């Protein structure tokens, strides 16, 4: 049995428009009740980038930029690193590892379905392992072991 990203992702996502200022992006992040520390950047309704806490620190603060005057498009990480909602959870984990990121936007045909984070995966790893063990037991039982 496959464990798909759609079963573990967060469906509500934080977004800002391409020409929004960094201050607005920071306010959206701060207003997030789960505080995931990101905003997805949209241009004409299509996802084109992401701004994370890391971007705010490394590009804005360290770079000496004025967050009230700097557009998110100037500091966003782009292109987006994405996964499909039907992708296996292990694939998402592997992409995170290979690309050294903690967040993947879940996208299909330029439509955002959600976001999967390392936090989502770590909070659900026990459920994932339990389901895997039950699947193995069912599979071996069906073979007569």
Describe this structure in words.
The protein is of the alpha/beta class and 145 residues long. The protein has a single domain, classed as CBS-domain (Roll). The chain has four helices and six strands, in the order βαββαβαββα. The strands form two sheets. A three-stranded mixed beta sheet has the order 1-2-3. A three-stranded mixed beta sheet has the order 4-5-6. β5 and β6 (111-117) form a beta hairpin. It is elongated, with a radius of gyration of 18 Å. The two termini are 19 Å apart. The mean pLDDT is 90.
Shape: elongated
| Sheet of most strands | 3 strands, mixed
The sequence of SSEs as H and E is EHEEHEHEEH
Please report the distance between the alpha carbons of the first and last residues.
Answer: 19 Å
Using the 3D structure, state the CATH architecture: Roll
Q: Write down the CATH topology.
A: CBS-domain
CATH structural class:
Alpha Beta
Tally of DSSP β-strands: 6
Structural class given helices, strands, pairing? alpha/beta
- Kindly estimate the percentage of residues that lie in beta strands according to DSSP: 15-25%
Radius of gyration: 18 Å
Helix amount: 25-40%
Domain module count: 1
Jot down its keywords.
single chain, 145 residues, alpha/beta, CBS-domain, three-stranded mixed β-sheet
Summarize this entry quickly.
By secondary structure, the chain is α/β, with parallel strands linked by helices. Helix content is 38%, strand content 21%. It has a single domain (5-142), classed as CBS-domain (Roll), CATH 3.10.580.
Question: Would you spell out the secondary-structure blueprint of this structure?
Answer:
Layout: E1 15-17, H1 22-31, E2 38-43, E3 46-52, H2 53-61, E4 82-83, H3 89-99, E5 103-108, E6 111-117, H4 118-142
Parallel strand pairs: 1-2, 4-5
Antiparallel strand pairs: 2-3, 5-6
């Amino acid at each position: 049995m496959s464990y798909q990203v759609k079963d573990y992702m967060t469906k509500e996502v934080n977004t800002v428009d391409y020409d929004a200022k960094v201050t607005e992006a920071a306010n959206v992040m701060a207003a997030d009740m789960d505080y995931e520390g990101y905003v997805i950047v949209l241009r004409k309704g299509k996802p084109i980038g992401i701004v994370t806490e890391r971007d705010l620190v490394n590009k804005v603060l360290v770079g000496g930029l004025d967050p009230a005057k700097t557009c998110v498009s100037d500091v966003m990480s782009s292109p987006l690193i994405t996964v499909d909602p039907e992708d296996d959870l292990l694939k998402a984990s592997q992409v995170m590892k290979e690309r050294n990121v903690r967040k993947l936007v879940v996208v299909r045909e330029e439509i955002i379905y959600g976001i999967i984070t390392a936090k989502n995966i770590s909070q659900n790893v026990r459920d994932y392992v339990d389901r895997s063990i039950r699947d193995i037991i069912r599979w071996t039982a069906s073979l007569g072991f």
